[in-house]
Design goal:
Elements: H1 2-21, H2 37-45, H3 55-74, H4 78-85, E1 89-97, E2 107-112, H5 123-134, E3 140-143, H6 156-163, E4 171-173, H7 184-193, E5 197-198, E6 202-208, E7 211-217, H8 224-235, E8 241-243, H9 250-255, E9 260-263, E10 272-273, E11 276-280, E12 290-294, E13 297-301, E14 318-326
Helix pairs in contact: 1-2, 2-7, 5-6
Bound molecules: fe (ii) ion (FE2).
Residues 114, 116, 146, 176, 178, 265, 267, 304 line the site of fe (ii) ion.
């Protein structure tokens, strides 16, 4: 009975999300902050699989103490200093997407992923990056998660900057595994408050010249089976674009014929062979960096702007403007 009630509730929330997404005026700069109740309610349904400040938070905190703080102390701060000195690449890339809607040919998508706000991504640096993306004249902001590294409180100015990006086709966010470590419900509500459209198994529709662009987003999950279930839950809406933190959703997305999928999470392994970014340390991922195709679907995996460990070799951090072309 409980399961049935939860499923019914979830479907109601999805409907509410779809209806909300159709209201373009709610995304305009200066619009009222979004109603966050649907986001909170949806995430609370997942509270068993994503408990707040559970063992995962403690393990991540311990990992930070051992791998970052302790090593950095031994190296007298050199590791973090060098990491922060490494430039972040701003790239603009055209991508040919079969079945991309003609009315949205040339859409400029600002793809931001894995900022990991915290000790390795100070607030002013994060805001600067967001402002730089804003100056790139994007039509849409697509953030594929891990905005924060551990605790979320204090990141609000970053969310505010993201919510103020000029993007007439919307500003979307899906949550990553790190966004779930502390309190995903409160974090997502704060993001929605700052006018970011948080997508959880939901679809937003935008109109241009009487044509629709459907943007779907799914929440973090590690399991390919659970990711497939999430993709299948939104596939009937026939989205043109899917945002997912975990690139492992691509198998299901390509089976569903979704034209374009954007993901993050892998950080491109953070260490790769020189000039061979796809030969990297993200060994658990078949799709770990850059472009992939399967059938009529295309995937771009962003290697992220930040990191939880202060070391990258041959995998520069990046922020990408993808220019989507029908082709
Ligand atoms: Fe990440």
């Amino acid at each position: 009975m409980k399961k049935k009630a939860a499923a019914k509730h979830q479907s109601k929330l999805r409907d509410a999300n779809s209806a909300k997404a159709g209201d373009q005026s709610s995304h305009k700069s200066g619009a009222k902050p979004q109603d966050t109740s649907h986001v909170k309610a949806h995430l609370k349904l997942h509270s068993k699989t994503h408990p707040k400040r559970g063992g995962k938070f403690q393990r991540a905190k311990l990992r930070q103490i051992i791998f970052t703080k302790a090593i950095d102390r031994i190296l007298k701060g050199r590791l973090t200093r060098r990491h922060l000195e490494q430039p972040i690449a701003f790239r603009e890339i055209e991508i040919a997407v079969p079945n991309w809607p003609r009315a949205f040919d040339g859409l400029r998508i600002g793809h931001l992923s894995d900022l990991h706000w915290g000790e390795l991504m100070p607030l002013n640096r994060g805001i600067e990056l967001v402002e730089r993306l804003d100056s790139a004249r994007i039509d849409m902001l697509a953030c594929t998660g891990d905005v924060v590294d551990l605790e979320w409180k204090g990141c609000e100015p970053l969310l505010k900057a993201m919510g103020e990006i000029r993007a007439s086709m919307g500003r979307y966010l899906v949550l990553g595994n790190h966004d779930h470590l502390d309190d995903a419900v409160e974090f997502a509500a704060a993001a929605a408050h700052h006018k970011l459209d948080v997508l959880h198994e939901s679809v937003a529709t935008r109109r241009r010249a009487e044509h629709d662009l459907r943007v779907a987003g799914i929440d973090w999950n590690k399991s390919p089976k659970a990711l497939r279930a999430s993709v299948e839950a939104i596939a009937h809406t026939r989205p043109h674009l899917l945002l997912t933190h975990n690139p492992k959703a691509f198998a299901a997305a390509s089976d569903a014929g979704i034209p374009l999928v954007l993901a993050g999470h892998t950080h491109g392994g953070q260490v790769a062979l020189r000039n061979k970014p796809q030969k990297n340390m993200a060994l658990a991922h078949r799709h770990s960096s850059g472009f992939y195709e399967q059938g009529v679907s295309r995937l771009f995996v962003n290697v992220g702007a930040g990191a939880w460990f202060p070391y990258r070799r041959n995998v520069p951090a990046e922020i990408v403007v993808l220019v989507a072309r029908r082709g």
